[in-house]
């Protein structure tokens, strides 16, 4: 059973195969623009009948200023025509192209290439430079950031699952984002035992079987967003952070085992948000601090 659960966790990590970058939590003073507060703070189950990504809008041709305290969340399709895929591939560094070739399945390789290329095109809009000219480097635990010290105040994070990718960008706040597609074959109970703190596991096991499925995804995505924000990947024990995940509770961090979590952060230092992504998907956004505005954009190629 343990080996089976580990394979499922690894499958999650491989599907969200871009680098771990940043984090988030529930900020009561945040002003939500084009994301309703109801959408961001309340439950959106995997069987929601709402239209997928209904809160995203087209990015203005003239751009939109990303001010301090603001978060931009982008949605993109990573299943793209071969001509567009080639455009994205041409922007990747040799290291990124090598990483893409490590995926055995052509679909996974193509989705990685598209997601990484789209990341470069999105960041290029804020940096006002060519996507090819963007250079990344990694921290101690492999967390990527912009190589140029003058550009490192631009924080970003990316996650993808299935044909969709989501991106979070901020000028001054650490951000993390996670997106997961519903999978009927998952052993939710087994996975919950691996990722939940004792307090969370008690709550989870007291839920009905029908509630457990959506609850697991809420728990998983919120923890993933937090861990990605720290940039520690799977070296950070997910049991060391306790989050809310029932349908009645707004998303937030309840507890951090600071002596074990390798961070001096307090739960109240973070803001967590639901991403109302529609039927079959669940997502979470994490922010270190209290963002004053969150906007959602639909990615469209420049050319």
| Number of discrete helical segments | 9
Fill in the CATH topology.
Ribosomal Protein L22, Chain A
- Name the CATH architecture: Alpha-Beta Complex
The secondary-structure class comes to: alpha/beta
Radius of gyration: 18 Å
- State the helical fraction: 25-40%
Question: What is the string of SSEs from the N terminus onward?
Answer: HEHEEHHHEEEEEHHHEEHEEE
CATH level 4 superfamily: 4'-phosphopantetheinyl transferase domain
Strand-residue proportion: 15-25%
Distance between the termini: 49 Å
Name of the level-1 CATH class:
Alpha Beta
Number of domains: 1
Describe this structure in words.
This protein is of the alpha/beta class and 303 residues long. It has one domain (2-298): Ribosomal Protein L22, Chain A (Alpha-Beta Complex), CATH 3.90.470. It is built from nine helices and 13 strands. The protein has helices spanning 2-15, 37-41, 82-91, 94-101, 106-127, 188-195, 198-205, 209-230, 258-261; strands at 31-32, 57-58, 70-77, 136-138, 144-146, 155-161, 164-170, 175-181, 241-243, 253-256, 270-275, 281-288, 293-298. Strands 1, 2, 3, 6, 7 and 13 form a six-stranded mixed beta sheet that branches. Strand 4 and strand 5 form a beta hairpin. Helix 3 (82-91) crosses helix 5 and helix 6 packs parallel to helix 8 (209-230). The chain is globular and about 50 Å long.
Question: What features would you highlight for this structure?
Answer:
alpha/beta; 9 helices; disordered N terminus; globular; Ribosomal Protein L22, Chain A; 303 residues
